[in-house]
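Objective 1b of the project was to move from sequence-level analysis to a structural picture of ligand recognition. The entry below was assembled by the postdoctoral researcher (A.K.) and checked by the PI before modelling. It contains the amino acid sequence of the target and the SMILES of the bound compound, S-adenosylmethionine.
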Amino acid sequence: MTTPAAPNPAALIELATAFWGSATLVAAVRLRLPTLLADGPATAADVATRAGTDPIATDALLAAMSNVGLCSKGEGERFTNSALAEAFLVEGRPGFLGPALLYNGDVFSLWANLDSVVRSGKVAESPNQYLGADDTRTRNFVYGMHHRALGVGRAVAAVVDFTGKTKLADVGGGPGTYSALLTQKTPGLHAEVLDLPGVVAIAREIVASMGAAPSVTCTAYDYTRDALPGRYDAFLISGVLHREQPEGVRRIFSQVAQAAEPGAVLWLSDVMLDDDRAGPLFGAMFQLNMRVLSHDGRCHSVAEQRAWLDEVGFDVTEVHRLPAPINYTLVRAQRRA
Ligand SMILES: C[S@@+](CC[C@H](N)C(=O)[O-])C[C@H]1O[C@@H](n2cnc3c(N)ncnc32)[C@H](O)[C@@H]1O
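Corresponding predicted holo structure:
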């Protein structure tokens, strides 16, 4: 008879220290080290002089960065960006993900109090902070969404199809990036980005910078209070429903149904859970992130949303699961005629 092997605690130590890697990435981006290294290999002392940082601590950060795949140390003790850092962490490059990653830096300290959130059921900080109340946080959040949509999120705009539709309501449209991309790919489509006033002010600036202003308008709207301000034959609800409990989702679906032309098409795009709500890993963790950030944060399954849509006269016609790094599920539904 063999004795079962004793469990190895290595996985626990790895989990307990996983935040080291995350903090290393956030600090590297905040201090712009990959952008500085894009000029060519440099010693820790050179990098520290250019970044205005402490040379000994900078050397330690660069050593950590080289062990999590952000750079490597070579001849003359010079550090060079990894291919990953060159592609996604250098300011001004088309794939730059800095603002999207820095959003995680903003919420980092809130996760440290996860036990309090779970004990009390209350969020660590009001979501209003990054939805208009604090200018810098709001700007980081909205530009983070914009860069995410332009980078990894482009695949969403590639799948979402509004061919033949003319008036799109982009509910909780945030930076307006998806509206801009979708009107650019769909002849005859006009989009209305509907979001909270502090967010819409920044969306106008982003939509104009994308050259989409003639086809995209931005309107202040609060889905907890306001009815949708027009009639539409197309709807996009992207990354919004994970802020809401089931009653909130059903309220939004009901507002959509009241503003929908017969045959209107609705696309949902979000992190969704499996039908048993037990996973996948990214969905379970993302749902926890929304509990830390938003009073009503919750991820929903396709089965739940199919039932809620049916209640307001929409049939689900397509489901697409996009893999990492997007991790969004796209659901197409159509208003019964
Ligand atoms: C994660 S963002 C998604 C933005 C955009 N749809 C995207 O996919 O890039 C969620 C959006 O919901 C908006 N939102 C939150 N509460 C809202 C409310 N009560 N009324 C309207 N929009 C709201 C936020 O301002 C934010 O822009």
